[in-house]
Amino acid sequence: MRLLSISFDTPIQPWQVPAFRGAVARKVGLDHDLFHNHDNRNGLDTPEYIHRYPLIQYKQHRGRPMLICLDAGVDALHHLFQQPNLTIEMANTPRALRVAQLDMHEHNFDSAGETCRYHLRDWLALNEDNYAAYQRCDGLVAQITLLERILQNQLVALCYAFSHVPTAALEVRIQDLRDRRWADYKDLKMWCFSLEFSTQLQLPNYLGIGKGTSTGWGVVRKL
User: What is the CATH number of domain 2-106?
Assistant: First the structure.
């Protein structure tokens, strides 16, 4: 998997990430759907969401806006840099995007059997069905077992999205449940988890897992 991370030298708050995403998408033009994951070709007021793993993800890292571009998302980034200038409009305020740091490399998910440990921040794990199952869990052990199964399924789906077939059955173990809180996601209240887990996959830093990956939820960092 090709991976490009690029951060810009302009201050941003975590809650401004969706606005940053919208501003960048408008800058490059809404016909480039990798920047926003919506199908604008039908002319509807509410474009249809494209169900796929986001290949361009928007983050806030150390107070700066960051883009994580994967495979085809790397190629699409030229639509941003071919613009006459890199000034975007956020909340009717112009923001000049000056590149602070850029890193481009190829990533291999295979860990050669090694177990790796990660921190997962602000993970939106539960859809409607999973939330009902979580509420039925009798105690913390049952809740963690359910979360492990959900995380395992999401990691398997991630592998297949990039044509990686794990060499062995994927194992996921939650080592430390750091935090659980209610979070506002779009118009919903959802459980948001921060935790440490282990698995035999090599995952790149800042990759997103779960809901809201395109706007900074569920961020992975290797420990």
Answer: 3.30.70
Cβ partners under 8 Å of residue 70, min gap 6? 1, 2, 3, 55, 56, 57, 162
pLDDT one-digit tens code per residue, 170-212: 999 999 999 999 999 988 899 999 999 999 999 999 999 999 9
Spatial separation of the C-alpha atoms in residues 54 and 62, rounded to whole Å:
22
CA dihedral of residues 199, 141, 210, 133 (deg, nearest 10): 140
Handedness of CA 15, 203, 147, 131 (dihedral sign): positive
Do the two domains 2-106 and 116-222 of this chain adopt the same fold? yes
Q: How far is CA 97 from CA 12, 20, 24, 90, 183, in A?
A: 11, 11, 10, 12, 29
Tell me the domain boundaries of the chain.
Answer: 2-106, 116-222
pLDDT in tens, 104-152: 999 999 887 889 999 999 999 998 889 999 999 999 999 999 999 999 9
Q: Which fold has domain 116-222?
A: Alpha-Beta Plaits (3.30.70)
pTM of the model: 0.91
